[in-house]
Amino acid sequence: MSTTNHAQRTAAAAARERIAGYQHRFDARFEAYFDSLAGHLDTPPLSRFTPRCLHLLRDLSLRGGKRLRVALLYEAARLVTDEEPPGLEEAALSIELLQTHGLVHDDIIDDSPVRRGGPSTYYAYRREFPGEPRTALGLAVLAGDLAAFLSMQVLLESGAHAALKQAMLEVQLRAGAETVAGQITDLERDFEPLPSEDLLHTVCEYKSTRYSILAPLRLGLLAAGEELAAHDERLRRYATLAGISGQMRDDYLDLFGDEHTTGKSPGSDIRSGRRSYAVRAVLAAASSPERAVLESALGDPGCTDATIDRIRRIARDHGVDDELRTAVRRYAEDAAAEASSWRPHWQTEAVSFFEGLPLWNAQRTK
């Protein structure tokens, strides 16, 4: 193994270990937050549906997730200080509540029955109201909305000073609005027979990168007292590169991942009609008859496993799997190189985390 590869593996392993630590710590705090809501949130006293809504949000929020956004937030603060500044814990709650909002609404848009190994919020309501589809849909939409508003409220109630709370709210509100715009563009993308790679990059940036990577970086630095203006360009470069690498990895695993490792059957993007990085690469490389096989499967929820296997064979015959792995790695290494340029500005240990994170993400198998 080369010295470079060894260093990259070491950095990736260190990032993975730190992420696990943040996940364990935050999950306990997130559970305590939901425990406190019953006596803290002013809800209609005679309502039976509101407590059920909060229960479903709690269940989805605590059911899983790697808490990468939380790790990014805390490590961004550690770029500046070894102390935990006021407002950081509430920012972590806000980030994950906004993520819960996104998951609930994504599952409505995608008509997804399962999320994180359990029923999606939408399908939980569909089972509870089998003869009332409009009620089930309305309650699911409102549950997602409630999570979004809670994500802002928790920032307002933090112990940070007023100017910091205002700055954090601006970051989160902007991230939320941009994510909705990204979701709209995501739907638009799937009407393109062969979307350009630039369009896929745009969808990735707005739908996920800005709230999953850039917003946590900004929030963590704000909490630590850093001025964002001097650093925002380097934060954007890192977020863009790391975001593309991560999304490509997700798309790769959706088509080529091992079901026993990922915990789900491959081909969900194909069945939902999503022209992902992987689907686009197959469409671009395939012959006309091969492309017809994929086009007929796109958007077909009943697409068989045999058809997905055939599409995977077509993709491998054209080297799409190798092409995607190479691209994932390239973007991850570029992100790590961007992070390494931060060393003159910020603390070395935290910079090392940001170097290792995209490399770890590029190696993951689920």
TrEMBL record:
Its EC number is 2.5.1.-. Its cofactor is Mg(2+). Signal peptide: none annotated. One of its GO terms (molecular function) is transferase activity. CDD domains: Trans_IPPS_HT. InterPro entries: Isoprenoid_synthase_dom_sf, Polyprenyl_synt, Polyprenyl_synt_CS. It is an enzyme of class 2 (transferase). Keywords: Isoprene biosynthesis, Magnesium, Metal-binding, Transferase. Coiled coil: none annotated. PANTHER family: FARNESYL DIPHOSPHATE SYNTHASE. This is Polyprenyl synthetase family protein. It comes from Streptomyces nondiastaticus.
